[in-house]
Description:
Layout: E1 2-5, E2 9-11, H1 13-25, E3 33-40, E4 44-47, H2 53-59, E5 67-70, E6 78-79, E7 83-91, H3 95-98, H4 101-118, E8 123-125, E9 153-155, E10 161-170, E11 173-181, H5 182-185, H6 192-207, E12 210-213, H7 221-231, H8 234-237
Parallel strand pairs: 1-3, 1-12, 2-3, 4-5
Antiparallel strand pairs: 3-7, 4-6, 7-11, 8-9, 9-10, 10-11
Helix pairs in contact: 1-7, 4-6
Amino acid sequence: MILEVLPGRTGGAAENMATDFMMLQRYPREGVARYRPYGWRSPAFTFGYSQKISFIRGQLPAGGPFDLCRRPTGGGLVDHRDDWTYSLVIPRGHPLEEARATQSYRAIHEALAGALAAAGVPVALKPVADAAPAGEPGGPAGVCFERAEIFDVVHSGSGAKIAGGAQKRNKRGLLFQGSVWRPAAGGGPVDWDAFAGDFAGRLAAALGASAEATPWPEFSDEEVDGLAERYSSPEWMEFR
Length: 240
């Protein structure tokens, strides 16, 4: 099996969400996993598919406006102003795609924690789930980096959450969208380009694959633009 490692790109929030979903839905080579790190064109926040827009608007900090988009995956509100972001697609039929969500989450975060540790960041995986606060208004996970969930990556000294993610499964496979909150890593500076390459190798090992640098796929511009327009529409943003 091959893990295709796509070049990093920077985009707006709706464009990034559309591209991630297109990675799951359309691809010129079937039966391969695919991974991409990416950045943000302007200060951005994304929030989980099931979250209520009224809660999200109440959590945004002063100093906006911000580029805001509902993700196709679940999870909580994520601040992308100083994070390192990536997505991973695992094709249908792969053992991790067929595994329970907690198992795939753990495997991906074990690879991520290994790469962070190799970069000098003291990390651990959160071993147990905590009870959610009663009546949490934001839906699943609330605000992502305020509370670590089971198998999130945390700082082994402070316990602060460093990395989280969210998943979506459909008939094509599994989409995983992940974020590393760089300020929580603390310590010395991290070479994020070297980290990205090391993480790709560890992901490939977790998948039983070999990592292969791959040019950007030739997605249909019309389809990508149409999906990005949908993700930026009030109907998508405010349907909950």
